[in-house]
Design brief:
- With 649 residues, this protein is an alpha/beta fold.
- The chain folds into two domains: 3-481, Rossmann fold (3-Layer(aba) Sandwich); 514-644, GMP Synthetase, Chain A, domain 3 (2-Layer Sandwich).
- It contains 19 helices and 32 strands.
- The strands form nine sheets. Strands 12-11-8-6-7-14-15-25 form an eight-stranded mixed β-sheet, sandwiched between helices.
- Strand 26 and strand 27 (506-511) form a beta hairpin.
- Bound molecules: adenosine-5'-monophosphate-propyl ester.
- Adenosine-5'-monophosphate-propyl ester (PRX) binds at residues 241, 297-298, 378-382, 400-405, 429, 494, 496, 508, 511, 517, 522.
């Protein structure tokens, strides 16, 4: 057996022995008494009885050996700001925020909602929450008010941390009005809103509720707040993600399992060199650059927790991949940061590379990339032309990896930390990651399929450490959503199709449900449909994800109007299309806005009334819609074809 197979087998055949050893990588205040408690399967708990603290492991622990080493490099090409923080600085800043939260009455188990742009304060605040045992819930900055309101009502935060504004391509996006509107809509009232003033947009303060971040920071400037030791399975955070229904799911992560899994992911996948004492010869440290956002799972894991847990420096970047510090176009900005800060491993989404692909490739070779070991890409399918283009352009291994908000770290990946000779294969995110018992099940029979046969990708229980523990406040929803494929609830469904080749490389073939992926962001088509149906002129609608060269997929909507008079002329149609788009913008944000809204007289449904979304999607992509034996009205797809217009050459 090769080395990878041997270690992988050990991890899944003897999970308790495997994870007991991995758990030694973090500090425990009290040791755990059981590695795994599976008594209430599929709800499982890792490192039972052990007490630990994420912030202690990410910050305090390093003070003895790295207090003057850089922990955080912050670069914003939006505001032209660049700052570095040592582990000592980080410790001080985190304590200040922790003290201000404690003073506002936040305690163990309370929720703190962050609605912040990419600023260092966001990272300090996340760590401050985990320090005092509070549960953070980061909502992507700039998210639409109604989406924010549903998250406020679900998480019921004691305190909300926000800012005057974010900035995108030099354009200021005021957050405060969006937050105020969300708080109007929400039933829950936080006791305090702390506002960071970046000097980007003016803010009106609500007396008695809103306070200034900088004032509180000054008040608690010299504060020291002890870490609260949590039992391993106590929650560290809630992160909302889209599913098949319009109601977002709060993915709940534990504390101990999360820390252990993230360190393992660095060791086996992202930066094995960091574990044999290798440091960059110029910087004297290891530096990780996840070009993502703290509002997404990649940001939580690979901007904040994993690099800091491993004593590395993390580069946090606010801005576009094609815009420089002076606000001028610069498609080489990322590579200049890699060169200047001696980045050793970098992580982003394929969509960003497709943006760069439209630029002059000479930017890829203008900078010294000698520090960089590999570029990791995840979040959506990595098409082969894009992978080859960037691999040739920067001359580094391009390592695709597959995972979900729910799993919290990769399920499929090349694992150079296990076997340095493990080669990536174009089109495949790699092989099952240690700890994940992955299987492919036949859609109809649920039997396991062999090599080269498509199946639903599932994880056999127990989920390894670091995966979601439950849906926040709703164990039943967790079990019913993810564990209902087999009657005995023994497998977690990823809702992705997969296939495995003869050499054990796995490939992802798209979602089995109604979730689409727009520029690496996950959206439920049902959410968009619900939003469109909110427009008074719309009777019914269906939204599908259609292949797009840049964004991977874009939403396309088909709608039936209540009164045909409303779309009597081409101008009427155009106006209504614009109104529908604006409706989606308001409730879900511009990311979810359909690229087109086509008005049709009927929609393709089965005789039992189920929308034939896959057929609709096939027609949009110019593919054969497949077996239509169950379609109620065969002319429906004809109307769709007419609405789409003639195919372009
Ligand atoms: O469909 C899969 C796709 O993105 C989904 C998860 O999205 P999200 O929860 O936002 O987590 C992103 C964490 C990286 C998956 O169910 N997906 C993710 N990575 C890949 C992928 N599809 C193909 N290849 C990937 N590498």
């Amino acid at each position: 057996m090769d080395r990878y197979s041997e270690i992988y087998r050990h991890s899944v055949d003897e999970p308790e022995s495997f994870w007991r050893a991995e758990a030694a990588a973090i500090d425990w205040q009290a040791p755990f008494t059981r590695v795994l408690d599976d008594d209430a399967a599929p709800l499982s708990r890792w490192f039972v009885g052990g007490t630990t603290n994420l912030c202690h492991n990410a910050v305090d622990r390093h003070l003895a050996t790295r207090s003057s080493q850089v922990a955080l490099i912050y670069v914003s090409t939006e505001t032209g700001i660049e700052r570095t923080y040592t582990y000592r600085d980080l410790f001080d800043e985190v304590n200040r925020v922790a003290a201000m939260l404690v003073a506002e009455g936040v305690g163990r188990g309370d929720r703190v909602l962050l609605y912040l742009p990419m600023v260092p304060e966001a990272l300090f605040a996340m760590l401050a929450c985990t320090r005092i045992g509070a549960i953070h819930s980061v909502v992507f900055g700039g998210f639409a008010s109604s989406s924010l309101a549903t998250r406020i009502d679900d998480a019921r935060p004691t305190v909300i941390l926000s800012a005057d504004a974010g900035s995108r391509a030099g354009r200021v996006v005021p957050y405060k009005p969006l937050l105020d509107a969300a708080l109007e809509l929400a039933g829950h009232r936080p006791s305090r809103v702390v506002l960071l003033d970046r000097g980007l947009a003016s803010m009106t303060r609500v007396d008695g509720r809103d306070v200034d971040w900088a004032t509180l920071r000054d008040e608690h400037f010299d504060a020291r707040v002890p870490c609260v030791w949590l039992e391993s399975s106590e929650p560290s955070y809630i992160l909302y993600t889209s599913g098949t229904t319009g109601i977002p799911k709060g993915v709940q992560r534990d504390t101990g399992g999360h820390a252990v899994a993230l360190v393992a992911s660095m060791r086996y996948i992202f930066d094995p060199a960091a574990f044999d004492g290798t440091v960059d010869p110029v910087s004297g440290r290891r530096t990780f650059f996840a070009a993502s956002d703290i509002g997404w799972v990649v940001g939580h894991c690979y901007i904040v927790y994993a690099p800091l847990l491993c004593g590395m420096a993390s580069l946090m970047y606010e801005g576009l991949p094609i815009r420089g510090m002076d606000g001028e176009a610069d498609p080489g900005i990322w590579w200049s940061l890699v060169a200047r800060h001696r980045v050793n491993a970098m992580f982003t989404a394929p969509t960003a590379i497709r943006v760069l692909k439209k630029q002059d490739p000479s930017h890829l070779t203008r900078h010294d990339l000698s520090s960089l070991d590999a570029l990791f890409l995840a979040g959506e399918p990595l098409d082969e032309p894009t992978a080859r283009w960037i691999a040739e352009g920067i001359g580094k291994p391009i390592l695709d990896n597959y995972w979900q908000t729910e799993t919290g770290w990769p399920m499929l990946s090349t694992q150079r930390g296990i076997d340095p000779s493990m080669e990536p294969r174009f089109g495949s995110p790699g092989k099952p990651v240690v700890g994940f018992r992955l299987k492919l099940l036949d859609e109809a029979s649920n039997a396991e399929v062999g090599a080269n046969r498509k199946g639903v990708l599932v994880i056999e229980a127990p989920l390894p450490p670091g995966c979601m523990s439950t849906v926040w406040g709703d164990d039943r929803r967790f079990v019913e959503t993810y564990w209902s494929l087999l009657a005995d609830r023994s497998v977690y469904s990823t809702f992705d199709w997969g296939i495995r080749d003869d050499d054990g490389y796995w490939f992802i073939l798209g979602r089995t449900d109604d979730v689409i992926n727009v520029a690496g962001h996950r959206l439920g088509t049902r959410e968009i449909e619900e939003s469109i149906s909110g427009h008074a002129a719309i009777a019914e609608t269906a939204v599908v994800g259609v292949a797009d060269a840049l964004k991977g997929q874009v939403p396309i909507a088909f709608a039936i109007v209540r009164d045909p008079v409303s779309i009597a002329t081409p101008a009427d149609r155009l106006r209504l299309e614009g109104e529908v788009m604006a409706t989606v913008d308001r409730s879900l944000g511009a990311l979810a806005r359909p690229a087109r809204v086509h008005f049709v007289p009927t929609l393709p449904k089965t005789r039992s009334g189920k929308m034939l979304r896959r057929a609709l999607q096939a027609v949009c992509e110019g593919r054969d819609p497949g077996d239509l034996a169950t379609i109620e009205d065969p002319t429906a797809l004809e109307h769709v074809r007419i609405a789409l217009g003639p195919p372009f050459p």
